[in-house]
Structure formats: structure tokens, C-alpha cells
Amino acid sequence: MPTVAKIARLEPEAGASQYQEHVNPQWVRLLDALQMNVRYLRCAGVELDAEGGRRFLDFLSGYCVHNTGHNHPAIVSALQRELGREGPAMLQSHVSDLAGELAQRLCSAAGGRLEKVFFCSSGSEGVEAAIKFARAHTRRNGLVYASGAFHGLTCGALSLMDDAFWRDGFGPLLPDTHPVPFGDLPALEAKLQSGDIAAFIVEPVQSEAGIRLPPPGYLEGVQAACRRHGTLFVLDEVQTGMFRTGRFLAAHHYRVDPDMVVLAKALSGGLIPCGAVLMSNRIYDSVYSSLKRAIVHTSTFSENNLAMRAGLATLDVLDHEHLGERAASMGDYLRGQLREALSGYEMVDEIRGLGLLNGIAFKAPRKLRMRVPFEGFRNIHPAMFGQLVVMRLFRDHGILTQICGNNFMVLKAAPPLVVNEEQADEFVHAMTAVVDLMHTSASFWTEALGLARRVGNI
Ligand SMILES: Cc1ncc(COP(=O)(O)O)c(C=O)c1O
């Protein structure tokens, strides 16, 4: 066994090669192939400083974790103070005042019937809890979800996702889970008819499915159908929550009052894992129904002081810096600029989004000159085209982005909510340059050959 002293003396480069050896070599291979394997030295706000003096703008936000920006000084210092006070961090046998305070503030920000909170440490864990609570409350087994959803990769959450890539090889998953097309009320109604559906779990804006906004009236219709059939209406706001779309919850853009809401990601400032399931008193009471069931569903790190403190400090920053209003206005600005710059390019299908959760949707080209290489690379791997765009933005323009996990034709643009106009303009210029290149230069497509060679055996 290496001693602690030996571990502490290791150079950072050694850590990278040990990561390759002991954590995830395929991830290292992928980042190398995309020419995105850089060492970051300092991250603040929207900016990432990397080795060699390079600077990147983060338009990915760690999959919507960094709503308050990287390492927000107020959240960092709140955590430092929390550590310094040497309080009861993980006693497991006390009443956590910080959890009480955070729960009260979350419920008051969420409103409606959401009056109790179960804390956990990730989005998937929150979805798992929502599944259990829905079953316990309704005494039904069935679960309905929307096609293309992303709810997390633990077995229960994965049972609510129909994309074969994530599921294959990991079954059998939960039985009695049923997909319906997002936006299709009659399909949902037909599933609910059975009378055995505990919950419909849905993202108010589908993120990984390609930033899909609900059709007008859809969520209101979902709620009415759920109420008619005694099914719980559960919103997964893991990505959309915490002002990402301009309101505290994306639900607040619509006239709905969900029975449960799952939050995680940006809840704790991108620094400490934290998730929360907000629910009505009635649901809570049916799970924690007696003294002997006081901890019938719990988890060791739930309510830990650092996560709770980070949550409180994050809410303060979101509030004091008016980041909801900022997300709304910067989102409008970004989409406007993108539409102006990219309309007229054949492969750009649509710019869409809400607040600072945005997508640039591409479509297959008609012109032979582009269609032949496009189809060729799509045959190698359906994500190849999107990854080329991500790679170009990163390498040539210093912009970090990703394509949507369940829709490889949509590039996600979701910067921290502290992004300013100058940074948004830099993104739009970079995006325009890459889109222009794919329409005007063979080099965009020949580059893909290099990528295919580097990737080799996928
Ligand atoms: C909408 C949504 N729900 C749930 C999850 C799972 O969250 P976690 O990765 O924290 O388990 C994700 C993760 O990306 C998500 O986007």
C-alpha cells in the first residue's frame, strides 16, 4: 500500500496517468481523440484557465451544475466557514438545523403543495426516491415516462429511459414502466386508463432529448389527466431547476402544481453533491407513516452539513445576483443573436430553449457535397457529426460545449447564469465560424477522417 506521504508527493501528471490506469481509460481515449484532454488550472465564473495559458468559456456548466458560475466566492467561503465551525456534520443522530432551513427555503421558492423535502446526493437518487414514494403513496406499481427522457443511470431511474444505448446489458430493469411520446396527451391518457399507474415522471423541458419544450397546454393537460386517474405528477427538474430556465422551477412557466419535484445538480453550487425531492405532506405522511418508519427511506450522506450549507449559500447567490432574471434576459439575447447569425445555413434547423437551457438543432444536409460526408460519418457513429462541432468549438475557439445525450443532432448551449453579453457574443461568433466552415469548406469534413482514425475501434 502506498503511504499518504507518497500519495501527497505525486506530481499532477502522475495523477492523470493513474486515472488512466485505475479509473476510466476509455474516457481518456475519447477526450484524446476529440483533442479535448486539457488540464484545467483555475475555474471561475464562466471562464476556465488551462495549462499553456489557454482560456475556455464554459457553455456546458457541468451539465447544468454551475448555475452560479464556477467556484463562486460566496459559496466557497460559506463552505470554508462551515468546515471551520466544527459542527455536527455526520452524527446521524440529531436534528439538522441546516437541513430544516434549506428545506423551508426550497419549499417556499417552489410553492404549491410542496411542503416536505427528502435530501439525497444526486439526481438519480432523487428519482429513485420519487419512484418509491409514488408507489408507497398510491399502492400502485406502474410508472409512465416520456420517450427520450434522461432521469439517471441507477437501475430505477434507468427503467424510466427508453434509449437502448443506456439500457443495453444492464437489465432486467424495473417491470411495469411505460414510455409515451413527450407532448402526446392522448397517449398518456391511454396509459393512465389502466388505473395501476403510480406516477408520470417527466422533465418539464426535455434536456438530453434535444432541448424539447412542452407544446402549449401539455403540462397543464398532464396534470389534469394525472389527477383524474389518481396518478402522481412528478417533475424531474434536476437540470431545469434552480433558475436555469429563468424561473426557480421550469414548472413556474406553466400553470401546474406538481405532486413531487426532483432537484439536484445546481442545488449546491457545483461544489458538493446534493439532491432534494420536494413533495406534498400527503405523500410524505404515507411513507413516513409511523414512528417505526421514521427512517424507512434515508441515505448516509443525506442532510450532510456541507451540502446543506452549500445549498443555502447557492440560494443566497441566486437571489442576490438576480440570476433568474439574468437567465431569462441573457437566454433571449443568446437565442436572438444565434438566430440572426445562423438563419440561412442549410444545416441549422432551429434555435430553441428557455432561459439559459438552449439547443442548436442541426439537420441532415440536402446538397450532395455535404450529404455524402455527413452520411458517411453518421454511419461510422451517429454522434460523429455533433462531436466534430464540439471539437471545433473547443479547439479552434476555446468554447466548451456538448451534444445532447439522447439527441446527437442538438448542441446544447447552457452557460453558467452569470454569463455576460460579451461572453455570449464570443460564443455566437465561434458557433457562426464553425457552422460557416461546415457549409463552405471541405476541411470541416476531412477533419472527420482524422477523428475517425484517432477513435479507431469505437
Ligand atoms: C433531467 C435529469 N434527471 C436526472 C439526472 C441524473 O442526475 P445525476 O447524474 O446527478 O444522478 C440527470 C443527469 O444528467 C438529468 O439531466
What can you see in these coordinates?
This protein has 458 residues and is α/β, with parallel strands linked by helices. The chain has 18 helices and 15 strands. It has helices spanning 4-9, 12-22, 25-33, 61-64, 73-84, 97-110, 123-138, 155-158, 164-167, 185-192, 218-229, 281-287, 305-320, 323-342, 368-380, 384-397, 421-440, 442-455, and strands at 40-44, 47-50, 55-58, 116-120, 142-146, 177-180, 197-202, 232-236, 260-263, 275-279, 348-354, 357-362, 399-400, 402-404, 407-413. It is globular and about 70 Å long. It binds pyridoxal-5'-phosphate (PLP).
* Bound heterogens, unique: pyridoxal-5'-phosphate
Helix content: 40-55%
Radius of gyration, whole Å:
23 Å
**Shape verdict:** globular
- Distance between the first and last residues' Cα: 35 Å
Q: What is the beta-strand fraction?
A: 15-25%
Order of strands, main sheet, comes to 4-10-9-8-7-5-6
Task: Determine the number of helices (DSSP H or I, runs of at least 4 residues).
Answer: 18
Which regions have little confidence, pLDDT < 50, spanning 5+ residues? 1-9
Number of strands: 15
Q: How would you sum up the major sheet?
A: 7 strands, mixed
Mean pLDDT reading: 94
Structural classification? alpha/beta
Question: Layout of helices and strands, plus pairs?
Answer:
Elements: H1 4-9, H2 12-22, H3 25-33, E1 40-44, E2 47-50, E3 55-58, H4 61-64, H5 73-84, H6 97-110, E4 116-120, H7 123-138, E5 142-146, H8 155-158, H9 164-167, E6 177-180, H10 185-192, E7 197-202, H11 218-229, E8 232-236, E9 260-263, E10 275-279, H12 281-287, H13 305-320, H14 323-342, E11 348-354, E12 357-362, H15 368-380, H16 384-397, E13 399-400, E14 402-404, E15 407-413, H17 421-440, H18 442-455
Parallel strand pairs: 3-13, 5-6, 5-7, 7-8, 8-9
Antiparallel strand pairs: 1-2, 2-3, 4-10, 9-10, 11-12, 12-15, 14-15
Helix pairs in contact: 2-3, 5-13, 6-13, 7-12, 10-11, 14-17, 15-18, 16-17, 17-18
The chain binds pyridoxal-5'-phosphate (PLP).
